[in-house]
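S1.2 Input.
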Amino acid sequence: MLLAVVAFHSLVAKPFYIPSISMMPNLLVGDRLVVSKWPYGWNWSSASFHVLPRGTGRVMGATPEYGDIVIVVPPNRTDDLIKRVVALPGDRIAVVNGQIVLNGKPVPQTVEPPVQIPSDDALSCDGAPCYDAFAEYRQRLPNGQEVYELPTFRETLPNGATYQIIDHMNQDLDNVDEITVPAGHVFLMGDNRDHSADSRAPLWENGLGGPVPLSDIGGRAEFITFSLNGTETLNPLTWWGALRSGRAWTSLRPAVIKPAR
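S1.3 Output.
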């Protein structure tokens, strides 16, 4: 039975837990989701249990698409990360004042109404309240609920993949010099642009240190199974009270805008 579970997790799909705010507003701390293992082929990073040294080979390898949310298994960390693919092999990418410039063209960003994120004060990220960085955006709704109203933009990549991002302040990672993504690599960013250690950030700042080899990609995020707000533990007698309504079965595949004919 154990071997069957390990094989299923390594070859088909496995659960994943969101521990940080780097993919807000699309993924919240406490989300549980399913990661599929087959979309990009299989490699060392796909496996849930390792008996062989880390390798770079892939079986039936395929390249992610713009906008895919992927699991990263960096060689310099013990934890897996989750980020979005924003540039593919051969692309030229830069970031200018927080906007992606892809192959010389700014990636469209449009302002959207602020997104409301429940305060969920019971959640902790690295020992601190998860939403401390958003204190100035905290609001009390007429019904008494505490939320964070965060500035939101819609970003649309060349294939039409479109999704929301949060960008609420100026910071060093808002500007990244142009590079060319090498063959067999992708450039990854978090949707919460001011609070994501991703391909923009150097390794010594817990970032990914640039484009990520496809052999470090362990799978693709597919959908949310359920989400907990941190007020209860996984005790089956109490955890129902912590369920966030409306998040179960939410697809994590980006919407695609078809070009006008």
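S1.4 Remarks. Residues 4-11 have pLDDT under 50 and may be disordered.
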